[in-house]
Amino acid sequence: MTEAFFHQEWAQLEDALAGTQSRVTLRCKHTVARPVFDALVQCRRRGLQVQLSLPDTALNRQSAIAWERLSAIGGHIAWRQAASEAAVDGSFPALALVLDDAQVFTGKLGTGICAADDASEVPGLVCWSDADFVRQTRQVIDDEAGWGVVEVDPGAALSTSNAVQIRRGGGAAQQAWLSGVLQHHALATQAEIAETQRQMALFDHAQEQSLGPLMRDYLRAKAQYLQQLALQDQTAREEARAAQQRWNDYEATQAAADQDAGPATLDDDALDQIKQLYRKLAMQCHPDRVADADQARAAQLFQSLQTSYRRGDMAALFALQESVARAGFQTLASGESQQSDAASPTQAADAQLAQEEQAALEARLRALRSALGQRHEALEALRTSATWRTLSSQPNWDVWFAQQQQYLQGELQRFEAELHTHAPSATDPMAHA
Amino acid sequence: MPESSLPGSALRTVAAQALTVASANRLDLVAQTLDDVQQRETRAFFEAHPSLLQHCAQNHYPLDAELLAAHAMRWDWRRLSASAAIPWSLDLLSQFEDCWDWDNLSKNPYLPWSGALLQAFVRRWNWGLLSGNPALPWSLELLEAFAPLWDWRVLSRNAELPWTGALITGNTHLWDWVGLSWNDGLPWNVTLMTRFAERWDWTGLSANPGLPLDADLVAEFAPFWNWSWLSRNTQIAADAALLQAYADHWDWTALSQRRLLRWNAELLAQFEPRWDWKALSANAALPWDEALLLRWEHHWDWHALSGNTASWWSEALLERCAERWDWDALSENPALPWSPALVARWAGHWDWDRLSWNPALPWALDGAATMLAAHADRWDWAGLSQNETMPWSQAWVDACPDQWDWERLSANPALFTALAGSGAAPDALAAFILRYADRWNWATLSGQAALPWSQPLYRQCAAHAFAHLVAQHQDFGVCALPVEVVGVLLAVLDGGDTLPGADFA
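Structure tokens for the assembled complex are given below, as produced in the milestone run.
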């Protein structure tokens, strides 16, 4: 069971840390931001067992954070050597945080909190509560840090002696674990892209209802005016051509978009329901999660899932649920490789995978990293678009539309007045457009 | 392995189709068009309000060297030196070296701090302020490189330093030991505390929440502690054994106020003669229930008890001890089960001045309007006007315009947050604001960041608003203007170039 957070990640994490009862283990890929470190110190002061694993780099050693604060009050810090970094760190998430051996957070915090982290990663957290996954995560971090499993007596945590029980998993187990992490992050990011696009579609529809006719008139009037200007002034030709092109493009989008019904407006309950259904179905029919033989059918169903979600079409999603059930896909478990079917994490550790199986696993990791990277780029592109900035910053879209209407109306009137004043003849250049 | 068979490839195909191409294109086109229109509007807006432009540019625009130089006489260099918006660089600092306020620069967290930057202007910096700037890349090397220049008294209080035992040991003659003792950023442990036991300020250590305070540490330094401060230290988790071991040392009044003790009936009984029962009466962390109240009935201070914010209050409890409560204290207690009915039930008992300032009154419940009207002559309207839990709206304000305290209303962010969330158009909002133009405190209102300022709203309120105060928290889109446009607009303000003619493109 996983849950994705892409908004206020730090607030989510703070809440989770505040509710932690016995143990916090944090593995950082790069460094720890001050607020996160302070939160760990606070956890320790509350009597929790606190473990921090971070790379032994100059950036960390010379940072403004006094690491000894945590050690002095009984926290554990494992400095990972740079040599071991190359082996696993490339695909590790920026942070992996295990709470009470019951939950794991993987991902990256927002830039406001972790400015020094890998800029190529998009902020976002995935929360895991699956017992096996939590156990595997602990094993990977424990083995790497060399502190093993620390026995905790919650009642006397401040004076806990560290009974260390080392378990060695081996590289293959780590990679299988990473494969699972990457796959879930890809799914979570995909869900976030779908939600972002659903909101953009909703905004597009509302914007078209409010501004569509006025926008059409405005673009037309501007193109007309610039064409008229270009007749008198050669230097205005390029601008006139661009305005004409924009009007043509807008008309073309109108024709195509008119065929697409507007998305449904959902209340909070319906939105929660549709999000849950989306995630459940994505886990079942995501092309990355089905066997090779089912890929084509899964891709088809997943595309329908995307469309239905964007439209907020609950009925279509329920119908899709039946289709997915009928398809009977055999989904792959977290971390399971299509190329090495026998390689479940524990088995991989025990069986010492052969070299070619290892190579296949590494290829899968590379491919997953690439797919995740592309999805992050797609999400980043959506989130940095002017549309997203507008729709996410405006508390009331109607007020914003009304204001834009006012602006457009003013500009339209000015173009029309100019056209009227400077019209060289009765010829309407747009008649030939 | 062929690319098509790699995981993720199928997803890449379908992901791109989640938003229809037509919708995506239309959104892009409309966004570009509205950006163009908005930029033109913004330019026209600032042409009409040049003074506002200057303040907005100064507070929010990433002014480059050219703009800084061209309008050097116009800028408030002291304020600029504290700016987060300027693209700070060593070159920029050099270019205007004589203009900057070096005190503000020394405090500015947004500079690209490095050893090289410190060295470049070594005689300009205020080293006392630098010593307390948390944004510096603090390291042993940095401290050593400029050791004679730092203000070690300030450094000693700076929790951001890379504190280690070695850092402290290596500079014993430089540290201010009082400052160090109060600093919770140090890696406090028994070794460190023992080594410099004679140097520490033990009052500071006793109050320091950074210490790993447990029974062993308390025992280790028992002769040194300032027990009054130790009793107040938020990190000490004293249990009955620890309390007993140093029973004659603890400050029992301070302990009685502590929330983090493991409060229970046995603990209260064990140290009954030692507790400060007045302080205990106000302590919300005790396991309050009727049994506890009855058991120590004659110890409680009923005035303090009436102000206790534990969540154990009920209407029955109020009723049962009605004659014993201090109704003045109850009137300002946010933990009571407030309802319009409760207010009405004890209308003759409340201190209405205190009641009016109580942030927990049930203004969000049904019957709040009736409650407001029914006791109109009793309320202290200054208290009500600053209340952030009222169901603020235009209608709510319009209902009793002569009774509000408009100074406090102007400063109440909840009113303006509610107006912003009401969906009122800027014109309607401006009409509301202007309806009471002679009542608002316009200086306060201009500094009110919760008011949903916009270009149309400012246009209508420009005659009253203070541009420099509004510009402290609003940029009115100035950052979207190209640098050359800002330059032209500022030139007009300087009385230089005239604006070019209207250019529709």
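The mean pLDDT of chain B is 90. Chain B touches chain A through 73 residues (CB under 8 Å). Further analysis is deferred to the final report.
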